[in-house]
């Protein structure tokens, strides 16, 4: 499924969502790899098969298979980390902050794509998943890598748009069968 087909599935009650997606797709602030990896990672975090299929299809055109896998890895490892570190951050008992996570995260050391892109994708997923501790960590790593605040804001804006597309399509009654076709 192409992005244009995805836009066509966004219902009229979510016209702003459709317009925001069109705006994001025409935005050239990010490199193609940064942008499409971010869109794919955000789609996976948004958990809508229709949106995932469209973003993966679009990403495969401009990204290497290794970079596509890295975007998927960012979404997967952040799904785990966001739950764990959100708990550690929000739990009243400070003892959890002193305990080792004991979670494998080897992909962070060698993501298979540019490290700044991987951090950007991880930040976007963490924003969708609502993990403040992870957002702070990834934003700090991005700033240390010389990534501008405007680029970071763009990444989170794109994540918000992808999340809203998933919600709008889900609210309209589209389901897994749409992604299989």
Structure in words:
- The protein is mainly α and 181 residues long.
- It has one domain (3-180): AhpD-like, CATH 1.20.1290.
- 74% of the residues lie in helices and 0% in strands.
- The chain has helices spanning 3-9, 15-26, 32-46, 49-62, 65-90, 106-109, 115-129, 132-144, 149-171, 176-180.
Level-2 CATH architecture: Up-down Bundle
What is the number of E strands?
A: 0
Residue ranges: pLDDT <50 for 5 or more in a row?
A: 174-181
Structural class, please? mainly alpha
Number of continuous helical runs: 10
Major sheet attributes: none
The CATH C-level name is Mainly Alpha
Instruction: Report the end-to-end length measured between terminal Cα atoms.
Output: 9 Å
User: Beta-strand percentage?
Assistant: under 5%
- Relative helix content: over 70%
From the spread of the alpha carbons, the general shape counts as globular
Q: Give the radius of gyration.
A: 16 Å
What's the average pLDDT? 93
CATH superfamily: AhpD-like
Order of helices and strands: HHHHHHHHHH
Any idea how many domains? Answer: 1
| CATH topology annotation | AhpD-like
């Amino acid at each position: 499924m192409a992005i244009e087909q995805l836009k066509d599935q966004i219902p009229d009650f979510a016209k702003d969502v459709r317009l925001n997606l069109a705006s994001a797709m025409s935005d050239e602030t990010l490199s193609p790899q940064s942008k499409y990896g971010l869109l794919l990672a955000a789609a996976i975090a948004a958990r809508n098969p229709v949106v995932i299929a469209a973003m993966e299809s679009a990403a495969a055109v401009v990204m290497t298979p290794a970079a596509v896998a890295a975007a998927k890895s960012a979404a997967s490892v952040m799904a785990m980390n966001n739950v764990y570190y959100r708990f550690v951050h929000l739990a009243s008992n400070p003892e959890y902050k002193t305990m080792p996570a004991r979670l494998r995260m080897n992909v962070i050391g060698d993501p298979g794509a540019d490290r700044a892109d991987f951090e950007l994708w991880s930040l976007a997923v963490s924003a969708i998943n609502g993990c403040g501790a992870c957002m702070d960590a990834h934003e700090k790593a991005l700033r240390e890598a010389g990534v501008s605040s405007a680029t970071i804001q763009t990444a989170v804006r794109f994540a918000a748009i992808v999340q809203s597309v998933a919600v709008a399509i889900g609210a309209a009654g589209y389901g897994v069968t749409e992604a299989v076709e």
